[in-house]
Amino acid sequence: MFALVDCNNFYVSCERVFRPDLNDRPVVVLSNNDGCIIARSNEAKALGIKMGEPAFKIADFLRQNRVAVFSSNYALYGDLSHRVMSTLGRFTPELEVYSIDEAFLNLAGLSVRLEEYAWKIRATVLKNIGIPVSVGVGPTKVLAKVANHYAKKVPENQGIYVLDSPAKIDEALKFFAIDEVWGIGRQYSRLLKSRGVETAWDFIQLQDGWVKKRMTVVGLRVKKELEGVSCLEMKLVPSAKKAICTSRSFGESQTELEPLREAVATYATRCAEKLRRQHSYAGMLMVFIHTNGFKRNEPQYERNFVCKLPTPTNSTMELIRYALFALEAIYRKGYRYKKAGVLALDIVSENQVQGALFDRVDRAKHTAVMKTLDAINSKYGRDTLKIAAQGIGENKKWKLRQEKLSPSYTTKWDDIITVRV
DNA sequence: TCTGGGGTCCTAGGACCC
DNA sequence: TCTGGGGTCCTAGGACCC
Fold this sequence. Notes:
- By secondary structure, the protein is of the alpha+beta class.
- It has helices at 10-17, 42-46, 59-64, 74-88, 114-128, 141-153, 166-174, 186-194, 200-204, 208-226, 257-277, 316-330, 363-380, and strands at 2-7, 27-30, 37-40, 68-70, 94-99, 102-106, 133-138, 160-162, 244-254, 280-291, 302-313, 337-349.
- 38% of the residues lie in helices and 20% in strands.
- The strands form three sheets. A five-stranded mixed β-sheet has the order 5-6-1-7-8. A four-stranded antiparallel β-sheet has the order 9-12-10-11. A three-stranded mixed β-sheet has the order 3-2-4.
- The longest helix is centred in the middle third of the chain and has 21 residues, at 257-277.
């Protein structure tokens, strides 16, 4: 049996941990740059606020309904996520951290009463971290997802649901909308509905051959999992990324090259940090810039440039040099740029790097400098030490807009709450 | 004024190898 | 009349997830 533990309205719940006064109020969290609604409390959902809605479009509505609004605070969410995962790890020998707010637990071999155990998991996470979770249990991962849905959406279940008998599974699938199934997205659900498939139960009545032909083996696996045949394995160790991307929309659109250089150098720096964290090198670098596609009346421009690197690297200095070269190759005057990004591609592990015959870079030196740089920044905070190309000084107009940012209660000394005695 | 960011997997088809 | 068999690698495009 597998359990899927999912944090309820995770980002909102994180904000509430240190703001219990918000517990019964509608709360939303915005995407980067304070753009769209990406998390909603139940009260906010009840008001009809939609996922992905641009915040500026409903600014008045939010104010009128006294909705508490927050910018994304990933330092906080990431840290609370780690704490949740480490608590969950105590309940299983096999934990798969599936996303920032979800994990699978393999319950095979545990001699426990499943429902009781699920209750215990939920209560412990709530007590240790203050985050409410839903626990779904089923014989396959996809069925655990289904169970989780019933745990969360049916109030009487109070956050727990166990699919432990064929009759219960059958019943659950008959009322389960096809587009809610894990692995069935917009396209497949449209295809299936055109064939009269409305529920998960309808879906498993189809022929395997048809499903495989139209939805590849991925779709067939989903079908088998719904039928109770487990084919998705637990992934215990996260594998190294094959592509790493750092991209941001700007707080304000930019026309000049200089601020774009600072932004791109900063994104290249983040990519290099991510590469070093997973002990790998990039063999290729891509830089892209584009204008604001929503502005129909403004001239549009969008381009990217790919550099093949002579030798794979994760040196910030080297990546910045290539990134700026790429930027200058695609930058054109006369446009209002809204977004830029840097992608590290062709990623190889550090023990399988192919050197270049005419390499003129002192790699040992770069490695040593990066090690020192990381050590200092890890101790004193990001960008304590940085490359000048990233730009100096605060109040950069290209930086993210984050007007409603909450304190980083758990990761920043200055933000730790004080308790009056 | 204002519209997010970061990933994975699978398949088909073309080019190439012996 | 008839023209082999078996394989790899790469890319673009399409689907999905949070």
